[in-house]
Amino acid sequence: MKILVTGGAGYIGSHTVKLLGERGYEILVYDNLSTGNEWAVLYGKLVKADLSDKETVRKVIREFRPDAVIHFAAYIVVPESVREPLKYYRNNVVNTLNLLEAMMEEGVNNFVFSSSAAVYGIPEKVPVDEEAPLNPINPYGETKATVERILRDFDRAMDNFRYVSLRYFNVAGADPDKKIGFAYPDPTHLIIRAVKTAIGEYKTLYIYGTDYPTRDGTCIRDYIHVVDLAEAHLLAVNYLAEGGKSIVLNCGYGRGYSVLEVIDTAKRVTGVDFDVKEAPRREGDPPELVAKAEKIKRVLGWKPVYDDLEFIIKTAWEWEKEYIKRMGEDFTSPLPLGEESSQKGNKGQQ
Ligand code: UDP
User: Which CATH number fits domain 2-171+224-251: 3.40.50.2300, 3.50.50.60, 3.10.450.50, 3.40.50.720?
Assistant: First the structure.
């Protein structure tokens, strides 16, 4: 099967490309390398181009003739989306329209979309199921909810078009082979920041809020290993190839860990008693976000194999050490070791 992967040089995209490549799929990656890395594309060819360039998108689809498109390419930093909403709507919504139009014009009908638990905002019920209302609380989440609505309408209008929308919860960890991992400058995610603090890149890990109505006062999240998530994309592609109908699926394990539990585990796994300080709440953080995760198992036959917080953090830690080592060789350093990056309470989200 031939798969076009937009954003295939990024974190989740590159893990999915690796898995597809290992299983013998033919891959073409379409990425502008704005946050992705060429070295992270381990299989297939890379087209360095932007989705705003519709002519190129169409030409690439016409020449490659994919059986399915997996669409990762998007901006994902929540506070940036609050400051620059038009940039987010243009890239995440308008460029997705370019891609869908090009697919339609070239007769490519199967689409897997990177959505997010951010579409739920602050859910009324936890674990949250796929039927819960879309109620995003920031422009990033709005762009994902908008694309989901576009997909619903496009699916209704077209005879052949079908899609799987995967709503990611908190994606973490790295390739156990240590070939790829999270590699963007100045990340905001908890597990990445914890391992970067353990390795000495940051002096302190801040806990954003200890007065939430949860078991220990800190926020609870459903952390999913990036390779299990990659597997969900592969199964989604197969599902569409077998004629499966359009569907929206949560991607999580269905269990939550608090920030304090993550920090304790990170200290144990890394063996480093790094500095941790309490800080005010970060704007827009729901107290608890945990997936109801049955539907994806039932519909796609998804069987997660890395549902283990220690393992998730261990692979993130192993990758971080490998990344630092390689930065001295042919990798581009995102930050000199020891230099404190901004602690503005930035918030990123998958
Ligand atoms: N968090 C934290 N310190 C950090 C980064 C994150 O306390 O340095 C908290 C954050 O407030 C949230 C949880 O960890 O409650 C998960 O945040 P993350 O940015 O990893 O993912 P999100 O759930 O926002 O997508």
Answer: 3.40.50.720
118 Cα nearest atom in ligand 1? 25
Is there a catalytic annotation at residue 140? yes
Pairing relationship of beta strands 204-208 and 220-221 according to DSSP bridges = unpaired
Closest to 52 in 3D by CA, of 14, 9, 87, 84: 87
Distance in angstroms (rounded) separating the CA atoms of residues 63 and 177: 33
Residue 136 Cα to ligand 1 middle (Å): 17
pLDDT tens digits for 154-193? Answer: 999 999 999 999 999 999 999 999 999 999 888 999 999 9
Tokens at residue 346, please?
């930035």
Ligand 1 centroid – CA 66 distance (Å): 36
Q: Whose CA is nearest to atom 20 of ligand 1?
A: 189
By CB atoms closer than 10 A (0-12, 13-18, 19+), residue 310 is: exposed
Task: Show the tokens assigned to 255.
Answer: 């269990």
CA of 347, closest atom in ligand 1: 19
* Count of helices and strands (H, E) across the chain: 11, 14
Nearest-atom index, ligand 1, CA of 117: 25
Distance between Cα 243 and ligand 1 center (Å): 38
Residue 196 Cβ inside 6 Å of ligand 1? The answer reads no
Distance separating alpha carbons of residues 10 and 37, to the nearest angstrom: 7
Q: Quote the mean pLDDT of the chain.
A: 93
Q: Report the C-alpha gap between 286 and 122 in whole angstroms.
A: 5
pLDDT band at 329 (very low <50, low <70, confident <90, very high): low
Catalytic residue among 30, 43, 140, 257: 140
Give the residue, by CA position, lying nearest to ligand 1 atom 11.
Answer: 208
